[in-house]
């Protein structure tokens, strides 16, 4: 079973501290007498090292337990304020036990200096304080490095998302189909053509957004989904049906930008569309914490060369980097359901 450590650098701290701790501790307990003979040096070092190993393990276990209860980096001083009194109490017991043992087991060539008991306890408490701050510093340094690495991954993930969105926007087939549909509407129904052009503009404006936001409101994403699905509906007619039903209180919740673009593009380009067996897409919320995108499955023999699964994988990875609940994708023989966690908007 793996030993619980306060930080990855804890063994290094142990090795750096053990020698000065033992040397000065023995000096306080026995005075210089203990260093006059090889027997005294050997025995005192062996017993002190054994004592230090046991005490360090106990203190380390206590530190791990406390850090689990008070784990936030912002609670650093609160965590230390709880640890140190516990360590001081344990030091009093441990040092008194050491003096008691040396006084009753005449194994050492020197007698313990009982008048130094409280000086020894004070030294042990000072060393516990120093070691605690060193380990806390090491642990927080590791957390900082980890957060920097995760931030870089998150930034790369979002940049990749924007690239995927841009690919979808400038895809020649997508543009050709939009313009072809618009051309037909101009000859058939000028009013519908104007509406189509307006929705097409909204879609491309959103896909080309140049802000650096990591999260956007669900309301923005739903507006994009409505415009995008309007274009698809105008092209395929009765071959596709969609329904969007989101409670107003959920619209200010947050999700990563272009999430709906990734999901809807995956649905449209991986399913066959025909009027006899219409593709049904439902976008709704089961509660205040989840957005559901459900659609029927219609196997498509030829799939576009767009790497659509990469887009979904990228969306899943975003939520992992955000330390949010996982994106869930479940399939059965006739439908697929994608569950997207909604993130609370603290400014709403």
Q: Could you characterize what this model shows?
A:
- By secondary structure, this protein is an alpha+beta fold.
- The chain folds into 2 domains: about 10-150, no CATH class; about 170-340, Heat Shock Protein 90 (2-Layer Sandwich), CATH 3.30.565.
- The chain is about 60% helix and about 10% strand.
- The protein is built from 9 helices and 7 strands.
- It has helices spanning about 10-30, 40-70, 75-105, 115-170, 170-190, 190-205, 220-235, 260-270, 310-320; strands at about 215, 240-245, 255, 280-285, 290-295, 330, 335-340.
- The protein has a 5-stranded mixed sheet, with helices on one face.
- A hairpin with a 3-residue loop joins strand 6 and strand 7.
- It is rod-shaped, with a radius of gyration of 33 Å.
- The model is unreliable at about 165-170 (pLDDT under 50).
What is the strand arrangement across the widest sheet? 2-4-5-7-6
* CATH level-two architecture of the largest domain: 2-Layer Sandwich
Q: Classify the helix fraction into a percent range.
A: 55-70%
Shape: rod-shaped
Q: Helix segment count?
A: 9
Question: Span from first to last CA?
Answer: 46 Å
Task: Give the count of structural domains.
Answer: 2
Number of strands: 7
Give me the CATH fold name of the largest domain.
Heat Shock Protein 90
Mean pLDDT: 80
Structural class: alpha+beta
CATH class of the largest domain: Alpha Beta
Strand percentage lies at: 5-15%
Low-confidence stretches: 165-170
User: Main β-sheet: number of strands, strand sense, barrel status?
Assistant: 5 strands, mixed
**H/E series:** HHHHHHEHEEHEEHEE
